[in-house]
Predict the 3D structure of the following.
Amino acid sequence: MKKFISIFLALALCFSVLSGCSGAKKADDGKLNIVTTIFPEYDWLKNITEGAQDVELTLLLDSGADLHSYQPTAGDIVKISDCDVFVYVGGESDQWVKQVLGGAVNKNMLVINLLDELGTKVKEEEIVEGMQSERGEKDESEYDEHVWLSLKNAATLCGRISDKLCEADEKNSAVYSKNTEEYLKKLSALDKEYRDARDIAKYTTLIFADRFPFRYLTDDYNLHYYAAFSGCSAESEASFETVAFLANKLDELKLPAVIKLDGSNGKLAETVIKASKDKNAETLELDSMQSITSEEIKNGKSYLDIMESNLAVLKKAIKE
């Protein structure tokens, strides 16, 4: 899927007006102002910076907006423009970022692009057998943006982010290093739980009657999958052929469950199950962390908690 974002000019004009009204950059308040686009980045930084002095952390997508449809408000642009550290994913959904950063007030801003930090570990979106694709034969492939759904990627990214924060904010470097070391141990322990579950799995294939943002996770643990749509697909209505294919795979592999994503109404999963022969498969939900709200964060939702919950769901799907 190729996204053409038509808001660039509007953003540029909006930012130009705001910059003209706000005048010079405010005097340094002594705080390290960090702005992140999505929840996983925010929660990683919350753990890395815990106990650090004079650090202010802001999450832009805190209203349940999906990364793929997010459009920054005038207020968001101001927050980014004036921050000290900006962390974003860097995929097709973030095409707007370059222009916003081009007009930023703080020219010394530390900008961290997750895809750039992962380098060769970034995977291209793939179209597997049976998947409904928006991509034409001549369309270029896109990088899979959902890098946070891999505990291994999370460990790499937290380490890179921490190193850069230590350089940018030396007075808190000891805090960042200590917190990161502790957090990496938690990520590693949970990764081992995933590997242990995979080692004794009865089934090694998953069926997603939904979009599929979990390629990094399934590749980490050598799991196979079939899905209705790719991870960044805007489609929601599956064709008869797609439904039939997934239902046949459900029967052929005798799988116990069909998976849907957080925020999905589950109707496609129900349709696939009804189209299968025994119609007894369970619908399970995996959380892709693409629509976390500030209220959920306030109530204690964390990256590790969600990945632990996803493991519990995965165990049901593979019958540990």
In short: Residues 151 and 191 are 6 Å apart (CA to CA). The mean pLDDT is 88. The beta strands are 32-36, 55-59, 85-88, 110-113, 205-208, 224-227, 257-261, 282-286.
